[in-house]
User: Fold this.
Amino acid sequence: MTTDTHADHLEYEEDDKGGSSDEHSAHLMTYVLGLALATLLTVASFWVAKTDLIYDPGIPMALATLAVAQMGIHLVFFLHLTTAPDNTNNILALAFGLLIVGLVIFGSVWIMAHLNHNMMPMPQLMQMQR
Amino acid sequence: MSSTDSFVTIADPYRLGHRGPNLARGHGGGGPASIRVIVGYGFWLFLLSDIIIFACLFATYAVLAPNTSGGPGARQIFDLDRVAWETACLLASSFFCGLATIAVAKRSQMLTQAALLITGLLGLAFILLEVSEFTALYRQGYGPTRSAFLTGFFTLVGCHGVHVTAGLLWLGTTMAQFFAKGFRPDIGRRFLCFSMFWHFLDVVWVAIFSLVYLVGTRL
Assistant:
């Protein structure tokens, strides 16, 4: 691989340098491990959804936990999110994104549930509009 | 500037981003980060904004899901076997996309094209399964106009499907560019963005199959 400019040379220093076969097998192991863990968690999720062994109201929480765990596996093993210094910016952006996601989802569900609870029943509302 | 002098100026916030000794690149010393890191970061920000769009659709679905308007509920229309196959396709597709990353690092045209082809075929299988689900629902009269629940469902899952379809087009473009232009640095960066996009779609699908399909059948 020839690079013609200094900038190109720099960027191939990062993680994309053609690499040794040791590094390639290490990367391969990362993906295989990620696939194995993700498969395990997926199977667990489908098992939880079909089983009668778990207390029914606890099932959504169990599924949410498994989903979060699997998303974490994907972020670490497939998207290579790490705690290394060159990933600090990505982690901070992710934290901010998760804050917004949390506000949007929990805020919407919370407010709409309360509105729904406090709203006048539909027949009475219709009567008032006559 | 003497070496002790430059050592003192590192702590100066107005010198952040300038070259200094013994510090990580992109962190005030050692020069700016490489193009590859910056491109990856920019695309990461795009993915986070995309995930906020999905969060809005998830919130909409969560609010609307109980309102079936006399129509079918989640329990009646979700086929978990099909969802399991869709999940398997997308997860395997994500894995082969990872293998393609290794093949690109090895500069192997044949392995790259093979891994990307399998990635694309598995993604296509996912889309076909989803289309068959949607058309089956539509034929039964359970289209997006039937109830608020179905509107939210079709919007959320359909938006993910559109993303995967767009990803397939991007995948084809990437394969053609690797074939025609070789492993140029700029093509490599585009492929980096594509692989992030593809893994990200799998992350969104994890949320969909868990919180929409699996939770839906147990509520």
